[in-house]
């Protein structure tokens, strides 16, 4: 079963890292998780997202398309990236989610992919 592990955090927390500081810790905390997921054969895809200031929101209301800069809603945490994994069950998805570094300062939403098959 495929699960999205959606990573949310306050972008202000992440902005406290300089690019040099991030590059210093990335191999230890982020790249090792990716390597472990690949070795276990569970990683389907992953990526981070650019800051929310770069986003555009689209809505269609009464036949009119409206676009606005920024997010749809103001929140304390923003979607910052994801892992798509293929594991047998929710328990295993939770075990992988616990290893995501941003769980320490944000939250991880574990959501199964929708299937049209009942």
List the helices and strands and how they pair.
Elements: E1 2-9, H1 11-14, H2 19-40, E2 43-48, E3 56-61, E4 64-69, E5 78-86, H3 90-97, E6 107-112
Antiparallel strand pairs: 1-5, 1-6, 2-5, 3-4
Can you give keywords for this protein?
single chain, 118 residues, alpha+beta, Alpha-Beta Plaits, four-stranded antiparallel β-sheet, two-stranded antiparallel ribbon, 3 helices, 6 strands
Tell me briefly what this model is.
Helix content is 29%, strand content 35%. The chain has 118 residues and is α+β, with helices and mostly antiparallel strands.
Task: Describe this protein's structure.
- This protein is α+β, with helices and mostly antiparallel strands and 118 residues long.
- The chain has one domain: Alpha-Beta Plaits (2-Layer Sandwich).
- 29% of the residues lie in helices and 35% in strands.
- It is built from 3 helices and 6 strands, in the order βααββββαβ.
- The longest helix is centred in the first third of the chain and has 22 residues.
